[in-house]
Amino acid sequence: QKEVEQNSGPLSVPEGAIASLNCTYSDRGSQSFFWYRQYSGKSPELIMFIYSNGDKEDGRFTAQLNKASQYVSLLIRDSQPSDSATYLCAVSLSGTYKYIFGTGTRLKVLA
Amino acid sequence: EAGVTQFPSHSVIEKGQTVTLRCDPISGHDNLYWYRRVMGKEIKFLLHFVKESKQDESGMPNNRFLAERTGGTYSTLKVQPAELEDSGVYFCASSQFQYGYTFGSGTRLTVV
Question: Residues of A with CB below 8 A from B33's CB?
Answer without folding.
Answer: 97-98
